[in-house]
Amino acid sequence: GQGAGIQPIWQSAFTEFVKAESALKLGTAGTPRTLLESGIRKSIAKVTTFSASIGAAMPTTDTAFVTTPFRINNYVNKVLASYDAATSDDEKMNIIMKEYYIALWGNGIDAVNNYRRTGKPDNMQFTRTAAPGSFTRSMLYPANLVNLNLNASQKSGVDVQVFWDNNPPGFI
Fold this sequence. Notes:
Number of helices: 7
Number of strands: 0
Strand content: under 5%
Order of helices and strands: HHHHHHH
Structural class: mainly alpha
Largest sheet: none
Distance between the termini: 38 Å
Helix content: 40-55%
């Protein structure tokens, strides 16, 4: 695409992952496993058809890395087998959020918000620094707000939870 990439604000695959999470945790309509599979397949389809969708030629690539229906089905089946083998909703949520995280490539905002909300996937590598400080759960208010507004006061730190964050302190 010669730099004609995208910033994926919201894609159909994202909706499937949100619905899978909701079905698993809240009991809303749909089967989490089916929604997970749909999300994975929609995400892969978006990636594999992107060049054609912007009128760009497919780049020459080593065939070892070219996606085929066989490879796609193997990957999806591997994920679904892991989902089926999961013995708790927590393990299932970890799989859903890992696949959602992969699909979010290029969209760091939703990846961080999903992680703040669920703590999943739980096997991400954190910083290599021994004592990195608190995980950022909310940002500080802008200086001009707290310096110019007598009714505003700065948060005590980035570990202050936002109103919708019902997880316990130190959750992540």
